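Hi there,

I know you've been waiting on this one. I reran it after we fixed the sequence typo, so this is the corrected version. Both the input and the resulting structure follow.
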Amino acid sequence: MIQWQGAEWVETNVIEARHEVVTGQGLFETLLVSDQVPQFFELHVERLNNSCKRLGVRAPTLPVIREGFEHLLHGRFCDRGRLRITLFGGLPQQLLIMSLVDTEPWPRSESVIISPWTINANSAITGVKSVSYAENALALRWAKDLGFGETLLFNSAGHLAEAATSNILVVLDGELVTPPLHSGCLPGITREFVLEFGVCEADIDASELDRATAAALLSSTRGVQPIHAIGERELDVSDTRIRLVMDSYRAEVEQDKKNWARPPEGIPPSVNLGF
């Protein structure tokens, strides 16, 4: 783990127990690193910046975060890893932390169960990737204790919103559908891409979910992962519409890897890394 201190990245194993840390007033982004490349790096930094505006936190610059990634990568090869960027506000200096750990690939498909808890679509931090993640973590642990890999969360209006750590895509009456942002779901990076592949946004209630013939989880580390069962009900993991979305997303990932090899636009060789 490294922390931005003054004007450089420093190795550390300690997180200061400041007010913002103990009260969960922080943000984070999780990126998949594949073959040394952080997937959709600039899109994640852009989302982090948008979350900073919501919380009134000063956003770190893109060069600072990119330098941190290069620091973490120095002297190691990362075939598949999880890069986490965490930011807490506060004075006199904000707390910016980065870490990179190796991860195993996800299963080819996943089983999910509907959570007994609902999310608040009108929360002050709805749509923000906040470190205040206890509700999601507890819901996920409950599902895993029952033998499922994820759990689906409805909002208080009775509409499907998201999974505990992912967005959700379903095939309903032959159409690809994902919950709209007003459901309370996170504006996921993978979700953003699938909207370009013929996926529409619509409210989904419990009876409609019961009619879904196929579904997939969407996240930066999962990509597009088919769901083979919701509770005891089996779904079609070979659905051609889901497969087409998976193929289109993989093509975007490969293009992003090629783009990473190019120098970032607008960043000269010598750049001010102030934060």
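Quick highlight: Residues 267-274 have pLDDT under 50 and may be disordered.

Best,
R. S.
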